[in-house]
Sequence to fold (259 residues):
Amino acid sequence: MPWALITGASSGLGEEFAYALARERFSLVLTARREDRLAAVTERARALGALAAHPMAQDLSRRDGPPALFKRLEQAGISIDFLVNNAGFGTRGPFYQLPLERELEEIDLNVTAMVAVARLAVAGMVERGYGTIINVASTSAFQPMPYMAVYGASKAFVLSFSLALTAEVASRGVHVMALCPGVTRTEFQAVAGTEQVRIPAFAYMTSTTVVDQALAAARRRRPLYVNGRVNWLMAEMVRFAPRRLVSRIISSMFRPAHN
Fold:
């Protein structure tokens, strides 16, 4: 039976991926830091059809977190066939005012943990000759993000890394896809402090739609998927617009009211 590992599974897109893959009869390993939320998601995933569902609470932002998680998987005799590398968060505000410790934690989770989990999962996939990895990036990966500078840069890393990795392992039977959703209705906005940014309501997508589109794109073995036609168009347009102009527009959208 195929095993899927979902990081950041206690809420948002990670939670929705858990339910979608449960409906597809995957066996699931769900990991996040919040044990209570993780337990609730696990129970619902079982009710929706997961052949098995194991919550494994782990702080992946710690350097020893990903190896500890995969040690637990090894002890349980679980090999991961499908990875959703979703754990991450954002911060908003002038970079020079944001707490350094929080910014470094953001890099540790969005970048370092993502690389570590991918490395620990992909080796077994290559050895077995099959597997799928979805690395959750963002439309923020396509341009500088004033007032969310670290978040945007971290997602640009995810995008570049994913496209490089898929070129390396595609001939080995392993598919890697960078998923780039735009603004999505999850608790991300509350954590990042982006609830009041100047983005029209019609631009927001639901987590269910984002995940359904992502899984369909992965089945088509797309190396990159941008959710929604408007988001795709914007991602393409910034490639041709002057960087200074793009930065100015993004700055006006994400600048906090008191700055």
Remarks:
- Confidence is low (pLDDT under 50) at residues 189-195.
